[in-house]
Design a protein that fits this description.
- The protein has 19 helices and 12 strands.
- With 361 residues, it is of the alpha/beta class.
- 50% of the residues lie in helices and 13% in strands.
- Helix 5 (56-68) packs parallel to helix 16 and helix 9 runs antiparallel to helix 10.
- It folds into 2 domains: 2-129 and 216-360, TIM Barrel, CATH 3.20.20.370; 135-210.
- Strands 1, 4, 5, 6, 9, 10, 11 and 12 form an 8-stranded parallel β-sheet that branches.
- It has helices at residues 2-15, 18-23, 26-29, 45-48, 56-68, 76-84, 102-115, 126-129, 135-145, 166-182, 187-200, 205-210, 219-227, 245-263, 281-287, 321-329, 331-334, 337-344, 351-360; strands spanning 33-37, 39-40, 53-54, 72-73, 92-99, 120-123, 150-151, 161-162, 231-234, 269-271, 292-298, 310-314.
- Strand 5 (92-99), helix 7 and strand 6 (120-123) form a beta-alpha-beta unit.
- Bound molecules: zinc ion (ZN).
- Zinc ion is lined by residues 98-99, 235, 239, 273.
Length: 361
């Protein structure tokens, strides 16, 4: 009910010229919009998970708007430097991609290059070294793709593959994850399990592999893209943030050394995997020489934002073009539910997180 009202309000604000005034305002000039993407579909991934994937057409429209609005799309490191030096150009934007899926190379990069936009890829390096689909997402995709079926367990496989509806699909996915955990399956064993699930559900796994769907960039591709100016930064080696300081450190150091081997550069910017932030992470990141870290909190950053808690706008298929445009102009941040709620309650956004984090850092 609220969403149609919000969209109608955004259309009205656009018609009244508020977007144009906002995008050129001093308020917007002092702020940096960091866009977050995960993937641009090779086939139908946006229909499977609209929170993770955009269609190529949607992504192209987003980038066209950045150009039309005369946005200054900056490399992330420069954008962060200039944010804190109070030296941002008007309509500043930085573009980031999480994880480093192959589709960045195949689908997003040509569009970015067409507009001359720089981008940062936060690369999780484990699956880079193992040219296989990322187990969790690939498993979810295959179960969705073959939805409507039921393959009962038998002597060859101990788990019912029930994907008749959304609920049974989720249960089956959960059961397969439990199986991996109970048996402490290695990466290779998980890949074999995925292949078995695909085979039993009559999914064309060979084609899936050859299309490179839900696979990460290889080391060779990463090196090639770095040579073409793509910026690769930290996202942990195995896409996890352990609460044990030594394990956390190892995740960053392994990630950094793998990135260095591929790109020749030392990565100093970080993105929290799955947006998980704990107050204890901040001093650990500082000790590791990390200069900035991005979250999945929606917002624009200004010079008072903590560099290790930079908000972003996570752009998804579920967001309409006008919502995207409202964020580029700054209006989207002002009318977001969180900001309005905070204003109504007469308090700052994210007070608990900031307070907790400052207490330990
Ligand atoms: Zn991620």
């Amino acid at each position: 009910m609220l969403r149609p009202l919000k969209l109608a309000a955004l259309h009205a604000l656009g018609t009244l010229g508020i977007f144009d005034r906002a995008v050129n305002s001093r308020w917007r000039r002092e702020r940096l919009l960091i866009l977050c993407y995960h993937g641009v579909s090779l086939e139908d991934e946006h229909a499977w998970d609209p929170e993770l994937y955009l269609s190529p057409q949607q992504f192209a429209l987003r980038m066209q708007f950045l150009e039309k609005a005369n946005c200054h799309v900056l490399p992330l490191a420069e954008a962060v430097d200039r944010l804190y030096a109070h030296d941002l150009p008007p309509r500043s934007v930085a573009i980031t991609f999480d994880d480093g899926f192959y589709d960045f190379y195949a689908q997003a990069l040509p569009v970015l290059q067409q507009h001359g936009f720089p981008a940062t890829v936060y690369l999780t390096t484990y699956y880079c070294d193992h040219a296989q689909p990322v187990f969790n997402v690939a498993c979810r995709y295959i179960l969705w793709k073959q939805r409507g079926r039921l393959v009962p367990r038998d002597s060859g496989f101990e788990c019912d593959l029930d994907v008749r509806d959304t609920f049974s699909r989720m249960q089956t996915f959960r059961r397969l994850l439990d199986l991996c955990e109970e048996r402490s399956l290695s990466g290779q064993e998980k890949h074999q399990l995925l292949e078995m699930v695909a085979h039993r559900l009559e999914f064309d796994f060979t084609r899936f592999l050859s299309r490179r769907m839900l696979q990460l960039l290889t080391p060779t591709e990463t090196a090639r893209l770095a040579g073409q100016g793509v910026d690769f930064q930290l996202h942990t080696h195995r896409h996890r943030t352990p609460e044990d300081p030594a394990c956390f450190r190892a995740e960053i150091e392994d990630n950094r050394s793998r990135l260095h081997a591929m790109t020749g550069a030392t990565a100093r910017h970080f993105c929290y995997p799955s947006g998980v932030v704990q107050p204890s992470f901040l001093p650990w990141l500082r000790d590791l020489g990390v200069l900035s870290a991005t979250t999945c909190e929606h917002g624009l950053a200004d010079a008072s934002t903590m560099p290790l808690l930079l908000p972003r706008r996570v752009d998804t298929s579920g967001a309409s073009q006008i919502e995207f445009e409202s964020w580029v102009c700054g209006v989207g941040a002002l009318v977001s539910r969180k900001t309005l709620g905070c204003w109504l309650a007469r308090r700052q956004p994210y007070p608990i997180a900031i307070k907790d984090i400052e207490a330990v850092s």
